[in-house]
Structures
1.
Amino acid sequence: DAKTTQPPSMDCAEGRAANLPCNHSTISGNEYVYWYRQIHSQGPQYIIHGLKNNETNEMASLIITEDRKSSTLILPHATLRDTAVYYCIVRINAGGTSYGKLTFGQGTILTVHP
Amino acid sequence: GAVVSQHPSRVICKSGTSVKIECRSLDFQATTMFWYRQFPKQSLMLMATSNEGSKATYEQGVEKDKFLINHASLTLSTLTVTSAHPEDSSFYICSARERQAYNEQFFGPGTRLTVL
């Protein structure tokens, strides 16, 4: 799976949009971009994923550049409860025991402050 | 989303004993389950992948005789840490996925293991 690069930490004011970047310059054509987050001492929580089109759900929006080498996760109105470690992961969606593994990097620690 | 539970949420044991951690998918059939380990201030590290009814596939560097994984049913996988030592103290997290649902992988709340 392609490696991702994320800033180690970011701050955001409550109520403002949080834009979390991710670089995945070696992504291949059949790899998806996934975002998960982990609130302290809990299991990771799925946020969103995409292949090449921008995606939006009730939690966030995912903007993928046209060359697919980078993406941005947008939390439109951050709250204090959005403080967490955010992981950007790329992986193949396929069957078998070896494919589809989620490999976590160091992620971005997002701190939302009042 | 689907719910994955783990039991116990927290366990303390003496060095040399074995500890079993259960992972259950509550409202779906988990054909594939994953076990991760997370040390303080570090990211999650995949330990092994298990498919229902077959032997687990361990990641490089993970001792299969020390971390026994059983995925005997479509809703239950267990991780047994045998002869635990203080360096095995960690946060163990399981994850489950339904057959063909490659986009959807759900995580349990984690189990905090402390070995004295």
2.
Amino acid sequence: GQSLEQPSEVTAVEGAIVQINCTYQTSGFYGLSWYQQHDGGAPTFLSYNALDGLEETGRFSSFLSRSDSYGYLLLQELQMKDSASYFCAVRPVGGNYGQNFVFGPGTRLSVLP
Amino acid sequence: KAGVTQTPRYLIKTRGQQVTLSCSPISGHRSVSWYQQTPGQGLQFLFEYFSETQRNKGNFPGRFSGRQFSNSRSEMNVSTLELGDSALYLCASSLTQGSGELFFGEGSRLTVL
């Protein structure tokens, strides 16, 4: 089966850098995705790591290490609007190749002024 | 380009009733997947459709069903509603089945009394 773990809450101040970790136990997956969800809103795609290493998209970077069963989302130059929940997700190998993602429990990020 | 559209946005039902939720994916997207989001269980995969065929199914009872039409629009149905079915039901579409990126709708918030 698939199991992902994330810290439940993270707090940081504006302008700071924060790292949200995602550790997993899975028999195999195609890649690690990250989503942001504001209260009352829809999850929004942030990044996808198909391979090990770092992916950078503006202020957001994501990292994957399959050998360590570990990934993280790095948010730089934090802004108040970054206050939201962040989810990691994997698409497991097996079954029919598709969009059957397994999501982590989510990390609630609070950015303080 | 219009995003993923879900209707209705909010609905209240009583135990034993059934409900049908609708999802219109982004134009050109042929893969549609459904997720249930609750505070206790987080985001859980329900099922996925591609070219009118169910490709994957999550671990939900048979009361949960869905279908996809030739224009890629999808519906999901929950019969014999239980209190525990109260949740935000999210629909997501993607261009291909291999994409690590899902585009979510705003969701249908179902309350079962």
